[in-house]
Amino acid sequence: MRDAACVLVVEDTAVVRALVIQVLEAHGFAAAEAETAEDGLRAVTESPPDAVVLDHHLPGMSGAALLRLIRASPDARVRALPVVGVSGCRDGEREEFLRAGATCFLEKPFRQPDLIEALRAALGA
Prior knowledge:
The chain has 125 residues and is of the alpha/beta class. Helix content is 45%, strand content 19%. The radius of gyration is 13 Å and the shape is globular.
């Protein structure tokens, strides 16, 4: 792991994305961002981060669908990325994320310390 682990935040709501990035940076993480699943897929394949925080409700493709693509990647680094799924937890989204291969899942609204703890555990830090 680099000095500051890079976390890609895939979240379509700008305010939520900015808040998560602020929390990550305040706890010593570097952060990258993507607004759509397609942008998130491009980001993880072009320059794999150390971990991903992935929302379920994204335009065009769900977070769980993106996670299935990540887990099916031909690149072993991408397939192995720790992914923290986040959602308002409607209609079995937690189970969908976990079946798709999420490292863990947090229900929105989540507590900031829970996010940091989940990422540190996922990164083995």
